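Researcher: Please translate sequence to structure tokens.
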Amino acid sequence: MALRVLRGPATALPPSEKAREMYFAIADKSGVTLESWRLIFNERDLKGFYGGGEGDFAVLDGVLVASIKEDADNANKAGPTTGEGGTEGPAPPKPDLFAFRRLFVDVEPAGDWSFSAEVLLDKTSTLAGLCFGKKADGRFCGVGLLPKGYVDLATLGASDGKPLTRNKVDLAAGWNKLRVDVAGTRVVVTLNGQEVVDFLFETRAE
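Model: Translation complete:
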């Protein structure tokens, strides 16, 4: 009952910060949520999406397809990277750099939430995955699938992406089902039904 009363002011525009704090506190303690599954992509067009990357995305046969090439807008900007660095020993492998675009859709859950999508990896893919975060401060997290057989959880923002964890996984070419579950400060990622990431942030704000 308390969650139903608080949900209105917690999700209003602008939201009540006090109601949001109370909603999250009750949800965390009770383990109860009012959220349910809903579609954020209608499989027909880019309605509801925005962010400057619209020209690099298209809907083909019900699938959201990205075709992103390096150009004057993204050639020299910091973007997602892979690879490791170091100052001692053999020269480290050069990181893989990716030209990227951002395409946003506004969906704000009131408590714990899950995000699921099928992503395609083929012989031309360099990176595929899901991003989520807060539009207000430009802080995001990304779950990336790398064709070499890794899944990354990283923070993304105005500066370089910060990798949080990297795990070796079995990746096959074709469609892969990726799911992100957020409960309190815990993020769990499953790939094709197999848990591949379990990460605990210090606060919800992260």
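Researcher: Any highlights?
Model: The chain is about 10% helix and 35% strand.
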